[in-house]
Each structure stands twice: as structure tokens, then as C-alpha cells.
Specification:
Layout (H helix, E strand, L loop, with lengths): L1 E5 L3 H12 L6 E5 L2 H8 L6 E4 L8 H7 L6 E5 L5 H4 L6 E4 L4 H31 L2
Parallel strand pairs: 1-2, 1-3, 3-4, 4-5
Helix pairs in contact: 2-3
Length: about 130
């Protein structure tokens, strides 16, 4: 799994990255301290999931969410809880409040991993079907 953690709080980035890197299937976990850096890293198209703060310098999380492909599993991590109505427009895996609650965070990570795994299975199935129909 290839992750991006985008948050201007280095402690939160480190906390999330530390847990993700402890998982056996994590290939790497990139960090971005602002929205523009996150957008550049996401534009490579080589990430499986992202954990994004909503309030970041240079480009906020909402602008970043609008720029992301809908197929990318995203978990929003925010200190503010008054954004829920605006988040309804996005297909998120989870929305977590800071400080992170460990059981909720782990549930969100499990959901992300299941989403990516089921998406990969669907892609393999579609590719297999396409080859068989030739």
C-alpha cells in the first residue's frame, strides 16, 4: 500500500505515518505539510489512499478533495467538526476528529485497506474478462 498523509501538524503526520508504516503491506507513506505539496505528490497517480487535513496552508483540504480522482480512498482528519455538511459532497472512507481516537483510526485504516483490496480485485476481474473476450 502506498499512502499520503497531508497535514500541517507534524505530530499528526508522524502519528499516522508511524502506524501505517507498521503494517506489513505498506510500501511507503509520504508526508505533505501543505495542500500544494500534497497535490503534487498525488498527481503522480501512484498512491493507494490519502489521509487529509482540511485546514492547511497554500491549498485547503476542500480544494484538494475537489482535485482528487473519485476512485482514491480518502480519510479526512480534522480538528474542526463544523465541516460535516460540506463533506457530504465527497465520497470519503471516513472523517476523523483530532486528537485521533486510536480505535476509530484503526477502523478507518481497515476500511481503506478493504476498499483498495476490493478495487484491485475488481480491476483484475475486469482485465481478465477483457482478455477472455478477445
Amino acid at each position: 500500500m502506498k499512502y499520503l498523509v497531508a497535514d500541517d501538524d507534524p505530530f499528526v503526520c508522524e502519528q499516522i505515518q508511524s502506524y501505517l508504516c507498521s503494517l506489513p503491506d505498506t510500501e511507503y507513506c509520504l508526508q505533505a505539510g501543505d495542500g500544494l505539496t500534497a497535490l503534487r505528490l498525488l498527481s503522480t497517480g501512484q498512491l493507494d489512499a490519502a489521509f487529509i487535513d482540511l485546514q492547511m496552508p497554500h491549498l485547503d483540504g476542500f480544494a484538494l478533495l475537489r482535485a482528487l480522482p473519485r476512485s482514491l480512498p480518502v480519510v479526512v482528519v480534522s480538528a474542526s467538526t463544523n465541516f460535516e455538511s460540506r463533506l457530504a459532497n465527497f465520497d470519503l472512507v471516513a472523517c476523523l476528529s483530532k486528537p485521533l481516537n486510536t480505535p476509530h483510526f484503526r477502523q478507518a485504516v481497515d476500511k481503506v485497506r478493504a476498499t483498495v483490496t476490493s478495487g484491485a480485485s475488481a480491476n483484475v476481474e475486469m482485465a481478465t474478462t477483457a482478455v477472455e473476450n478477445r
